[in-house]
Amino acid sequence: MLELRPNCECCDVDLPAESTQALICSFECTFCQACAEQRFQGRCPNCSGQLLARPSRVGTALSNNPASTQRIVKPHPACA
């Protein structure tokens, strides 16, 4: 099951489960669209993988499989 992380790993902006601004890599590292494009040029700073739009989860699917509440923020040089 895809872990829907609640925030951008760089700037810590909220990214709720239904957000269209969340991008992820194949390891589920999560970034907002602004950081992904402006700071990382579409590549994950952790694994160099491509950052793509995160699928949304809504309705019954979300209530049965809630998004994560654990916030992850990592000190990337581009986030300073």
What is shown here, in short?
The chain has 80 residues and is of the alpha+beta class. The chain has a single domain (1-71), classed as Herpes Virus-1, CATH 3.30.40.
Overview of this structure, please?
By secondary structure, the protein is α+β, with helices and mostly antiparallel strands. It has a single domain (1-71), classed as Herpes Virus-1. Helices cover 16% and strands 10% of the residues. The chain contains 2 helices and 3 strands, in the order E-E-H-E-H. The chain has a 3-stranded antiparallel beta sheet. Strand 1 (22-24) and strand 2 (30-32) form a beta hairpin. The longest helix has 7 residues, at 33-39. The termini are far apart.
Return the structural class.
Answer: alpha+beta
Name the CATH architecture.
Answer: 2-Layer Sandwich
Number of domains: 1
Give a quick account of the main beta sheet: strands, pairing sense, barrel closure: 3 strands, antiparallel
% residues in beta strands: 5-15%
Number of strands: 3
- Calculate the terminal CA-CA distance, rounded to whole Å: 32 Å
How would the global form be characterised?
Answer: elongated
* Helix proportion range: 10-25%
Overall CATH class: Alpha Beta
Radius of gyration: 12 Å
Taking strands numbered 1, 2, ... along the chain, how are they ordered across the largest sheet? Answer: 2-1-3
Order of H and E elements: EEHEH
From the structure above, extract its key features:
80 residues; alpha+beta; Herpes Virus-1; three-stranded antiparallel beta sheet; 10% strand
